[in-house]
Amino acid sequence: MTEPRLAVRLLRLFIPADARAEILGDLAERFARRKERHGERAARRWYRRQVVSFFLLAVRERVRALSRINLRSTSMIRPLLQDIRYAIRTLRRTPVFTVTAITTLAIGIGATTAVFSAVESVVLSPLPYANSDQLVRVYSSYRDDPDDREFNTAPDFLDFREQINAFETLATVYTYRETGVDFQTPAGPVRLRGLEISAKYFEVLGTPLMMGREFTREEEDGNSQLVILSYATWRDLMNEDPNIVGQSINLVGIPFTVVGVAPAGFQDPIVGLTDLWVPENLAPGGSNTRGNYFLSILGRLKRDATIEQARAQLDVITAALAQNDSRYPENQYAAVDPLLDDVVGSTRPILYLLLGGALLVLIIASVNVANLHLVRALARHRELALRAALGSGRGRLVMQLLVEGMVIAVLGGVTGTVAAMLGIRALLGISPDSLARANEIGFDPVVLLFALGVTGITGILFSLAPALRSSDLDVGDALRMSTRGTTGGVAGRRARAVLATGQVALALVLLSGAAILARNLWEQQRADLGFDERNIMSFEVNLPTVRYDVDARIRFHDELQDRLRALPGIENVGAVSKLPASGGFHFWWYEWPPVDGEETGDGIQVRVVEGDYFEALKIGLVAGRLLDERDVIDAPLAALLNVSAATHAFGDRDPLGRQIEAGGREWTVVGVVDDVAHEARGVFGRKIYFPHGQYADNRNWPLVQVVESTRPLGVIVDLVRTELARLDPQLALYRPLSLESMLAGERERERFATVLMGTFAVVALLLASTGLYGVLAYMVGQRTHEMGIRMALGAPAGHVRGLILRQVGLVIGGGVLVGLGLSLVAAQLLESLVFGINPRDPMTLGVVTVIIVLTAIAAGVLPARRATRVAPGQVLR
Predict the structure, then answer these.
(1) What is the radius of gyration, based on Cα positions, of the chain?
(2) Which one in 257, 400, 465, 678 has a CA-CA gap of 20 to 30 Å to 496?
(3) What are the extents of the domains in the chain?
């Protein structure tokens, strides 16, 4: 892969033409060396830092050049520099205003820049592969549900690879479920994460191996004991052996020949970091049938091909398959998606929502500063009038106020950029694993240019209107108005009221969005998922097939669970092929006896269980019995249905004792259990449970062990590790965690969005309330003369307070009406992020409205009280 294209273009802008070729060539050589030593990502980060360095150098040289200009002969620069010096002196004389404005802008610019850095790194930047715009992912989908995306079968992949010419090449990778091996080290066994891949996998991703070669098609036969190591595995476990290619290493008791080593920093676009790769078994027969969907397909389009051409060619093939092969569904087709869209698809709505929230904070901050400028400019009417009377034109006055605004914006932008760098670190600290490409978030030249652009635009926006307003004055009227308290007339009051109303409206939008996300998270956490996650510890153990046949696997699970049950403080021990609320898994076809001669069958989630699984998770038995020690390999096949599956298949009829067909076998229903969610959001569905003792011969099922105990997690982990080592010291204890932690991990993305949106909402509420308070407080101060006269003439204090609160009411009413309308529109963005609740929920919007109203009233109470404390005699004197 070459240097970052955007970074190269920026460098060309900063480097003088006479030195450009030599410097760019030197940087290219250094980039290549860094990529070889430290990996693609580190090299790209280094290159971006060079861009920033050259940018700062260019700015420094430009400043030096300007300092050498004869200001006496430069009619345009000299006044500008004078305005800058005057603006700095003016701002130093009003430290409260200056610090408030800079801090307010820094909050808005910092939040916006930090979130934009995430959007740029995750959504806008290309994937870290050569010509990544040519990469696609191929799914199985259905014409009656085109949004559905399913895995592919091995025969389909082989047909696509041979017959499609829109692709340079296709490759497949097994991502259906995480797989791995236990590798023996002097410190004990460690789990290595593995991927099964086809030939041309690295070629598709445009990543040459650091050493060695890829797998060939002939090695996709299921018998090739070959392995490609990741750079980290080669470095940490093979001591960076330069002669590792061709050597044999022991994995799960089998010698594997190392044929290659991947470059540093390489990771799979779907599953991320991987320790090693082995050939995928694509040989016909066995599990490689038209009905077994378990493979992911990656493709690289030819340079002159389009996605539409690839889709058209795939449509021709799938139509022929449906016509010639009865096992191929008629409504099935191959969907092709750009790989970038596939990788960041579920992340994009969250980041765009957060960017929208950050932009609203920036707008509120800019409105706040604009209000401060407007109030400050009105207080300077006499100064501006005198300057106009002495000959300053309107353009000169506007320029002076614009320069002051830009100085504030630049200082706020610099502070905000520093805050953004800290904010990016905070984002990385709280970003969930489910946030795609989170490890690539960083501050690069694109983000720097964005920060500079935002700074310039906000500086112009919040200072232009006050500048035009303040310069559009009648000198005589301004001098007369400056001799008595004033708020700048009706137009001035209206302008500030409109700005304050806008702040209230935008704060309501942010607060309503945060409230909807918070309620969504709260509903998820309190939702009944059908099981009890408390006091449950889970872990995985990989049983290598070479050492564990069917009988050995059954004996291992029985003995391990017996050992654990005998430990003090452990109540129940079981196992399952997929933990509840951790995603769908093994969606198979099942059939039941026909009713009235009509064939009956549908899809169902399959789970293989062992031991006290249902007792440990407190999954209720509705009818019949649970699976137990009676259900051994030579006993009649027994299965459990959940309530949804039993009702779907048998309706009001008793399901116990009835026969169902699934997985190519007939099972007798011996019990019915409660429904259990397979998604943390609370998604339920039909499930069938097979006993591991009767289904272990189907495949080497990787079971997740569950242990119920009230003892601390660390204590249980140590006990389990000890017992596992006694049973088989070559097995590694993998991923021990509590079920509560697992559920928290499944909800990380929602929590991430809720925390950030909540933070933005609180900041917006504070900015809006302080902005409203500042406007009202200044108005009261400017109308002190008027209030004193009213009270001297007999106006009661309540009447004077009413004048202030009436204006507060108008601002609140207008802001609430506008904010509610915008909130209803923004609710469309939340529909894809919430589940089970209405993003336009009237109760939530009502509570948010009450909070906004109370906050706004609180902001107006103190100025209203201050208005009644005016001493009439002092005012008249």
Answers:
(1) 34
(2) 400
(3) 1-68, 69-116+349-483, 145-330, 489-527+748-876, 543-731
